[in-house]
Amino acid sequence: MRFKNTSNILFFCAVQEIPQRIWAALDCLDNLYFNPQYLEALEKNNPQIQFFYIVLLTDKGQPTAFASLQLIDVPMDSLEESLNKNKVFYQFKCLGRKLGVFPKMTPFKVLICGNSFVSGEHGIYIRPEKNKQDAIKEIAKAMLRLVNSDEKLKKDISLFLMKDFIKESLVISDELYELNYYSFNVEPNMVFYIDPNWHSFDDYLKAMKTKFRVKAKRALQISAGLTLKKESIETIEKKLPQITALYQKVASKAQFNFGEFNIETYVSLLKNLPKNYFLYTYWLDDTMVGFMSGMLNKNSLDAHFVGIDYSKNRALGIYQRMLYDYISMGISHQVESIHFGRTASEIKSSIGAVPQELTCYIRHKKSLTNHFLKPFLKHIEPTVFQQKFPFKTVASKN
């Protein structure tokens, strides 16, 4: 598959096609989500996804922005099941089907600007000198150009999605309204900010209110029988079946997933990013009962997928132990924040994480269908949860 480039837009179907001179000019490799070593690991191990990349150029041919795209087959069964939990959507669907105007939801493809496996702004990089409002619109137009330039993509793709913009970025991303995009909020990314005065996990515990400190110590006590092992490229491959089984236990509980993550990706990530990517397994005697994974990226620690044996979770406090281990690791690496992702928000707030609002933008390729998206999206809202405040002083961004 090849696309016709223009004087200001370059299209690529594989990260290895992008010349080194472009990476050097963009100067974005310190953010690992825009590093070819990371992107190549995703590409290599997830053939169920088509990957595309867009590079914007100045009139003089200098790279000025980069966008990472993923073409996903949306699993409609799980999406409809998730949407049915919204009372308004369910009533609208039932009435529509009685009237014959709301057909059964069928699979479709969505072109995502962003990372379907990770929460956050990991789809677009813009150089400092580039006007960001202009860049976001140019990227959206380039996505449409990419689809229209290939007959198969033009036929298959139904939706365009630009995902996970934080509140501070809305002044930029709201420019998408001009291109007939609509916005909606998704589950927040739970972020834990590390006090620079903490030098050990004990400092973290001392900062907590008595109730939450007792809870933390209790969780650590019941999980004391677990053994934590750091996996390497030499040890992980033979453990992939166990890790996959534990991952699937967690994935099956999610309300909605864009698609399954191929656990063999971990082999490539540990090989390509040995100093930044990590995976730890949890053991009870000779039995693996969990794993945690993530990446040290600039000044943050990003928690990625976890796996849990739920039959032992309550007795051993596996998940709670993982959350505290992430915090301990973040403190020891002296990062500024830990990004826990968008699941189990209330539990994460109980250990000190706070919600970071995320906004997505969507449009349908057909104008008439796109028009009916707006009233529907009004009823898509993040799950309400009770925010906990475990610290003696309120946690805030440093």
Can you summarize this structure?
The protein is an alpha+beta fold and 398 residues long.
Protein architecture, described:
By secondary structure, this protein is an alpha+beta fold. The chain has 2 domains: 9-186 and 358-377, Gcn5-related N-acetyltransferase (GNAT) (Aminopeptidase, 3-Layer(aba) Sandwich), CATH 3.40.630.30; 191-355, Gcn5-related N-acetyltransferase (GNAT) (Aminopeptidase, 3-Layer(aba) Sandwich), CATH 3.40.630.30. Helix content is 35%, strand content 25%. It has 16 helices and 13 strands. The protein has helices at 20-26, 36-45, 76-83, 87-98, 132-148, 151-156, 170-173, 201-206, 210-222, 240-251, 265-272, 310-316, 318-332, 345-350, 367-371, 373-377; strands at 9-12, 50-57, 63-74, 108-113, 124-126, 157-166, 182-193, 227-230, 277-284, 287-297, 300-308, 337-339, 354-364. Strands 1, 2, 3, 4, 5, 6, 7, 8, 9, 10, 11, 12 and 13 form a 13-stranded mixed β-sheet that branches. Strand 9 and strand 10 form a beta hairpin.
Topology:
Layout: E1 9-12, H1 20-26, H2 36-45, E2 50-57, E3 63-74, H3 76-83, H4 87-98, E4 108-113, E5 124-126, H5 132-148, H6 151-156, E6 157-166, H7 170-173, E7 182-193, H8 201-206, H9 210-222, E8 227-230, H10 240-251, H11 265-272, E9 277-284, E10 287-297, E11 300-308, H12 310-316, H13 318-332, E12 337-339, H14 345-350, E13 354-364, H15 367-371, H16 373-377
Parallel strand pairs: 4-6, 11-12
Antiparallel strand pairs: 1-2, 2-3, 3-4, 3-5, 6-13, 7-12, 7-13, 8-9, 9-10, 10-11
Helix pairs in contact: 2-11
